[in-house]
Design goal:
Helices cover about 15% and strands about 20% of the residues. The chain is of the alpha+beta class.
């Protein structure tokens, strides 16, 4: 079994002792320090300590940085949660190119720096919910995907956006295993991709993303389960047909295209009604939270699914 039930996950398995003994809360980096770490040419609005809450930020306790960078789902670097952090360190993220294909006016292969040059980098503190019953609160650095889509000018026929992860078994050793069909693929409907919550992420905790968190470019859709957060993206394709995501292809009875957080629909092997929050409170045991519809972002996204049966369109 690739994915464990929450009841099967022991606290010692969730995080190593060296992590749960570190109870120091992370303070966001100052603007100047964070800006200096970004790729040349990128504008930044990196957060000041004590900055005002943004319109999409949660004020819940943030997950300590060490936990968020050592407990990861990234099967290209192993199926155990600690394997990506231990084995992805040598992953090369420079130079990096992204191919833009399909129903778009500006198809070509771009250097990442050129692709996003001049786009303002924002900081947003989002909840992140995983299907397996755990969640985090992470300060991401990125930009609205809508800004990039506007720049690329998809044609009116484009109804969906498909994303593809790098395929490089020499670096991503997990791709030598047959646990999934490689390369990893995910997709969004166009209105989902251009929703103001949807981010292309290049960093977290005021720093460039480490490899295990999807460097150098990953997707975050905070109202969806974590497997929609495709990492290390090398291709963006605009299409008029609904893409088939990797998990949807692998186990379609468990993972659908929409992947919206819906606590009222159980996963075939476990309940989605509650989640264990990784927030540094390990001495007292992980805090259990009631899972919120759309992960608590309903006011921003529920209109996109009006009239849809979210039990069938999972």
């Amino acid at each position: 079994m690739l994915i464990k039930k929450p009841s099967d996950i022991q606290s010692s398995e969730i995080t190593p002792e060296s992590v749960y003994r570190n109870r120091r809360q992370f303070i966001l980096a100052a603007s100047g320090a964070a800006a200096g770490l970004l790729a040349p040419g990128l504008a930044s609005s990196a957060p000041q300590a004590g900055r005002k809450k943004g319109p999409y930020d949660t004020d819940e306790t943030m997950t300590p940085e060490k936990d968020a960078t050592s407990y990861n789902n990234f099967y290209e670097f192993g199926t155990d949660k600690d394997e990506p952090g231990m084995t992805a360190g040598g992953f090369k993220t420079k130079p990096w190119t992204v191919a833009v294909e399909g129903l778009v006016k500006k198809p070509q292969t771009y250097n990442l720096e050129d692709l996003i040059k001049g786009i303002t980098i924002e900081d947003r503190i989002y909840r992140m919910r995983c299907v397996e019953g755990w969640s985090m609160v992470i300060p991401w650095m990125g930009f609205p995907l809508a800004d990039l889509i506007k720049r690329l000018e998809p044609t009116p026929q484009a109804k969906f956006v498909e994303f593809t992860t790098l395929y490089d078994p020499k670096q991503m050793w997990g791709q030598t295993r047959g646990v999934l069909r490689w390369p990893y693929v995910e997709g969004l409907r166009m209105d989902e991709a251009t929703n103001p919550l949807t981010l292309f992420v290049i960093g977290l905790y005021g720093k460039p993303s480490p490899p295990q968190n999807g460097a150098p470019l990953r997707l975050i859709t905070p109202w969806k389960y974590g497997f929609k957060g495709i990492k290390s993206i090398v291709k963006i394709r605009f299409t008029d047909k609904q893409p088939k995501g990797t998990w949807e292809v692998t186990t379609p009875h468990e993972y659908g295209f929409y992947a919206n957080v819906n606590p009222n629909v159980d996963h075939p092997r476990w309940s989605q009604a509650k989640e264990a929050r990784l927030d540094g409170s390990f001495f007292g045991g992980l805090k259990t939270h009631k899972t919120l519809m759309f992960n608590g972002y309903g006011q921003y996204v529920e209109q996109m699914y009006a009239g849809m049966d979210l039990r069938k369109n999972y």
